[in-house]
């Protein structure tokens, strides 16, 4: 047997070629560990993150590894598969809610000007907020429809894969410290009343009026695995698909196309587009700047 030359090993790993090979091996191991974690989550719990954009997903997984005080992704996998509470914390970490009332006010102003006149022609209106997070934009839509006299004939379906976020959305309770920003957004979005009419302050929180929640249905729905559940006049899915890879993004566009009525409206996020999807010819732009499209076939 040839003895191991430790000096040769050391010199190899310290050389640029050795360092490059070591980095490649570590990256490959990380990739395998993440694949196994995501496969286990899908098979055991039914949550499918396998086609999420890998760079963002990797950052969030490592963040959770550290928050659980673990040393590796494999250690996280073991805990996730044997401890559902750890799994639920990970899901919360992987679907960090980023939202606010009347976010991007110019979009809501455009919605009043260009979409509301179309909705007036319908006897009944169904709107789907896909990936609604903690519900701020859902309540924004309810307020807008109320001011335009359309809320009583509307049903807003608000869905998300994150149960904790959905529970907060159902309660309609938000921190009072954000009301100054939300009031500013509301006015810039074309609000016609005093924003404070829509909520009641309680200590350090506000709760939105029950008449708004009466027209909203909150439900769990996973865009990666679940199917269409109704036909809608408007679907809003803003800055959700930026976390998906091309395969999952195409699946979700297919889901939306199936779920929209003819001449239905699809609202995407500012960083998203219909370009380079298999459904680009099925829509016409209603407002290119705001990423609002109308289904034509």
Automatic annotation (TrEMBL):
Family annotation (InterPro entries): Bact_Chemotaxis_MeTrfase, CheR_C, CheR_MeTrfase, CheR_N, SAM-dependent_MTases_sf
Region (Disordered): 1-23
GO process annotations (BP): methylation
UniProt entry keywords in alphabetical sequence: Methyltransferase, Transferase
Every CheR-type methyltransferase domain range: 22-274
Organism domain of life: Bacteria
EC code: 2.1.1.80
PANTHER family, A to Z: CHEMOTAXIS PROTEIN, CHEMOTAXIS PROTEIN METHYLTRANSFERASE
UniProt name for this protein: Chemotaxis protein methyltransferase CheR
Classification of source organism: Bacteria, Bacillati, Bacillota, Bacilli, Bacillales
């Amino acid at each position: 047997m040839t003895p191991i030359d430790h000096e040769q090993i050391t010199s190899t790993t310290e050389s640029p070629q050795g360092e490059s090979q070591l980095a490649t091996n570590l990256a490959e191991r990380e990739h395998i560990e993440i694949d196994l974690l995501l496969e286990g989550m899908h098979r055991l719990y039914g949550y499918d993150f396998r086609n999420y954009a890998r760079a963002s997903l990797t950052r969030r997984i490592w963040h959770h590894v550290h928050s659980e005080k673990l040393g590796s992704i494999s250690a996280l996998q073991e805990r996730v598969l044997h401890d559902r509470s750890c799994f639920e914390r990970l899901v919360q970490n992987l679907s960090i809610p980023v939202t606010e009332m009347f976010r991007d006010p110019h979009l809501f102003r455009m919605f009043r000007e260009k979409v509301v006149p179309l909705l007036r022609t319908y006897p009944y209106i169904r709107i789907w907020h896909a990936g609604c997070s903690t519900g701020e934009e859902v309540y924004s839509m309810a307020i807008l429809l109320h001011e335009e006299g359309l809320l009583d004939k509307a049903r807003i379906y608000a869905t998300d894969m994150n149960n904790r976020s959905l529970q907060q959305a159902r309660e309609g309770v938000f921190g009072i410290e954000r009301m100054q920003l939300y009031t500013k957004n509301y006015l810039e979005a074309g609000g016609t009343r005093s924003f404070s009419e829509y909520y009641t302050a309680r200590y350090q929180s506000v709760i939105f009026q029950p008449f708004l929640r009466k027209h909203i249905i909150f439900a769990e729905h996973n865009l990666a695995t679940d199917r269409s559940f109704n036909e809608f006049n408007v679907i809003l899915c803003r800055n959700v698909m930026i976390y998906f890879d091309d395969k999952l993004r195409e699946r979700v566009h297919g889901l939306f196309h199936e779920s929209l009525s003819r001449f239905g409206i699809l609202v995407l996020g500012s960083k998203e587009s219909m370009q380079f999807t298999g459904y680009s010819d099925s829509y016409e732009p209603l407002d290119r700047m705001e990423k609002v499209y109308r289904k034509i076939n």
